Structure formats: C-alpha cells, structure tokens
Amino acid sequence: MLTNIPTTTLSGRSVLRTDLDANPSSGELKKDLERVLPQHNYNLGQIRELQEYLKGWHPAIQDRVKTTRTDVDNKITVDYAYSITRDIVGYFLGKPVQYTQREGKFRTQMQKFNDALKAESKALVDYQIAEHCSVCGVGYRGIFSEASARNGTHLKLLCLNPLTTFVVYSTDPLKPPVYAVTSYESAATESPSVVGTPSEVVTYYKVYTTNKQITFKTTTGPGQVEGIPAADLELVDEKDILFGGGLPIVEYENNQWRLGDWEVAVALMDALDAVTSDGVNDIQQAVNSVLVAMGMELTKDQFDNLSVNGFLNVKDIPPGVKPVVEFINQAMEADVGVSMRDYLEATLRVIVGVPDRKTRGGGGGGDTGDAVFMRDGWQDIDLVATAKEQYFIQAERDALSVMLYILDVHNETKKLAAQDIDIHFNRNKTANLQSKAQVYQTLTSGDAPIAPVDALDIAGLTNNVPDVILRAESYAAERAKKRIEEKKAAQALKNDESDSGKKGDPSKAGDEDGTD
C-alpha cells in the first residue's frame, strides 16, 4: 500500500547494505528483509514524492492556505520538472545505445546480439530507465529468460519501478551485490462482512540471489504502510536459478549521491509556482477591485444594486475631505514579477544544466560551430549527459553479463563476453560536422599523417571507430578491385579496337602474315 507513506526530505536515495555473504539461505534472507524493508520504505517515500512532483502535484503551492482575499486563490503549477526530465533524457538517450565488438572480431555474433536487443526493444527500456534515474536518482533493469522465444529471442528485458524494486549490496565494497528484490500486490477485494470495505492486501516479495529465487508474502491491512510488517513475512516458494553468477535485476544510478536531475532545485520551482500563482491573483484582484463612494449617501436600493458588483459606501468622512468615487486597487508592478520570474528561471536552468530557450539561436555576430554550442547553453546539457554516461555504463556492464549468459544458454550467440563489448552513446555526432571533417583531413594528410583510427577518435566523427575502420578498409579494397577490373576491361576494349583497325587497313595486313 502506498497510502500514508510519510514524505521526507529530498536528499538522494540511500544505499541498502547487508552483512550477508553470497547465496544466503531463505531464513537469513527473511531476517535481513525485516531490517532492510523499513530502510527501503524511507527511499520509497522520497521516490513517490518525486514522481508525484513530476506529474504536477506540488505540495508547496497546492497545500498553501491564503489568509486574505480567500476568494482569489489561484494555485498554478508550472511543471518545469517534466520539461527538465524530457530535455535531459531526450538529449542523453535520444538515439539508442550502440554495442560494438572490440577490434572488430565476431562481427556475425555481434549482429545476432544486437538483433536480439532490438527484438526486445532495449532502446525503449533504456529510455524508461533513464527517465526513472532523472526523476528518482535510481532505475532498475530486469533481465529474465523466457521458455519460448516470443520475439525471436529467449531474452526478456523490463524496466522495473523504483517504488517496488531495490538491490541490497554487501558491506564489503569488494564484493558484488548480494540480492535484489521486486514486489507486487494481489488484487484487493472487498471484505465479505462489510460491503465496500477493502480487505487485507497481500504483498509478494520476489528475492533474487545468484542461484535462488525466493518468494515471501506479507499481509497489510487498509492504511498500513508498505514494508512495515516485515516480521510477518511468510515463505511461499523457493527455486534454483542461474544467470551466470549475476543478479537478474540491475540498479542504475543517476550520480554518486543518487539524486534526480532536478531534485536539488525543487525550492526554486516552488518559488516559480508562487510567483506565477500570485501574479494571476494580482490580476484577478485588480479586475475584481471594490468601488468605494465616500462622503455621500445612497438609497438602499442604489446600494443593494451596486454592492452586488463590488461596491462600498462610506458616508461619514472628515470635514473638508472632498467626496470621491473610485476603485480600491493596488496592483503589483509588472516589472517586479517579470524580473523575479526571470531570475528564478535562469538560476534553475544553471543548476539543472538545461539551455535557456530564450537564448537559443540568438546572439548574432555570425557565430558558428562550437561558439554557438557554448553560447546557447548546449555545453551545459552535454556536460550533464557526459556525467550520466559513466554511471549508466557501469551498470550496463553487469547487465551485459547476464544478457550474454541467457543468449549463450539458448545458443543465440557464442563467444561473446561483456569485457569484449564497447558501449557507445551516439548523441550529437552531427554537430559541427564540417569542423570535425576538417580536423580529420588535417590529421591524416601532410608530411606526418597519423593513423585513421586515431584521427577518427580525435575528431569525434564516430563512437564506433573499429567498425568504421574495418568497413573503410573493406570498402577501399572493393574500390581498388573494381578499379583494376575497370582498367582491365578498358585495356581489353582498347586492344579489341586496335585489332579491328589493323584488319580493316590493307597496309598493315601484310605485317601480320609476313608478306609485303
């Protein structure tokens, strides 16, 4: 049950650790879960708060209470969080992650491996994991084996919800993760005694070690917090599994502190909500200004008639004060609100590293290439994506080992190992393409050219240097072979034309048969 989980201070997700050794027994796991589940519950509260914030529920503005002019109380949320996640993840994984074999070996096996990943829509699963990392600071990939190859492969890839999934690491930093957990709830039914009253809900925890899948269940009543009654865990099932020494659930970190991309900027986004809401309130209050009449007396019918539309009559005023009829209105100056909003928005974008839309394409002066890239703020988001890459690759290495093991067991690939595969991110390879091509040409020409493989790497034209070099060499060999064949064909044609000319010229015919 996710109801009644208390919200917490957003400070990154905690790492869950255990003193258990590899492959613990079901009894050891049950006892350890009693300790770990409340810790996961703390992370769960933050994750839920972040996910709800992304979807537009901002407590700072939605729950605030207005004490004056309570009839004018606009609560407007500007969902910068959704925009930031969309921009960063779109830039980071706008194109699928590419896998290549080092030194260009086993190209056929690599093609089979990539085909299996495409069949399982790995690019989509990667994107979903990256979204979770951007919002929650962590994401989870499930790697399982199917009995039947429904998509042409026995591999099954899933993105698991951080609300219901976690990985527990060893307290020894040299040891791999000990176990992983994912949970689900049974369908709630109504109590047979009281119609309309939800019954107790059964929550199942599937625990994976490197050689076991152990299922526990616990029962929670309406309103209870998930994970708290850990002492009531009941063993349901235990069976042997094998994923090549790894876990079928892999945790992806967004950064060292497991913070979301905009988590540290929630206060700024709340302030922007307040500025926007109060700005609309100010306009509405100006439109609904009260008309006041001082120093005059209206009849009851006149007063009742006018007061319906916001009218105030003050009969008694100090002597010498001239009667007046005017609106009570003190609107905030527009420049103040605009300046505050621009400052907050600029600060927000500096913190999260997303380019400001107002500066894109501006500046003038004929800037091109890297100058435009830096001026428009794209260098900031590129730095964000570059930092995320390393954490994604680290988890991807663990996932690759499990994926390759499953494919190898079902004879879908052979001879491939995770350490032999390079992982590439293909974003922004067309930016400044002309400049990169000029760099490559400069490096490979002149009196002291360098090897094309190094020139490609330095120029940044591709992330798949070995395969590009191999294809280039193969293409060059084909072109050379074709040129030789064309040259031979042209020479043969020339010889045929020469022979035809000699046969048609009587003066040369005698030379061929030895007569005058």
Comma- or semicolon-separated keywords:
flat, alpha+beta, disordered N terminus
Describe this structure in words.
This protein is an alpha+beta fold and 516 residues long. Among the domains are: 265-366, no CATH class; 467-502. It contains 14 helices and 14 strands. The protein has helices spanning 26-54, 59-62, 80-92, 107-119, 122-136, 266-287, 300-307, 334-352, 370-375, 378-409, 433-443, 452-459, 465-504, 506-513, and strands spanning 16-18, 98-101, 138-145, 155-160, 165-170, 179-185, 201-208, 212-220, 234-240, 249-253, 290-294, 311-314, 324-328, 421-424. The radius of gyration is 35 Å and the shape is flat. It starts with 15 loop residues before the first strand and ends with a helix. 24% of the residues are buried. The model is unreliable at 1-7, 222-230 and 369-374 (pLDDT under 50).
**Dominant shape:** flat
Order of helices and strands: EHHHEHHEEEEEEEEHEHEEHHHEHHHH
**Strand residue percentage:** 15-25%
Give me the count of strands: 14
Q: Kindly report how far apart the N and C termini lie.
A: 113 Å
Strand order of the largest sheet: 1-5-6-7-8-9
Number of helices: 14
- Give the averaged pLDDT, no decimals: 80
The SS-based structural class is: alpha+beta
Global Rg: 35 Å
Work out the helicity level. Answer: 40-55%
Instruction: Note poorly predicted spans.
Output: 1-7, 222-230, 369-374
Largest sheet: 6 strands, mixed
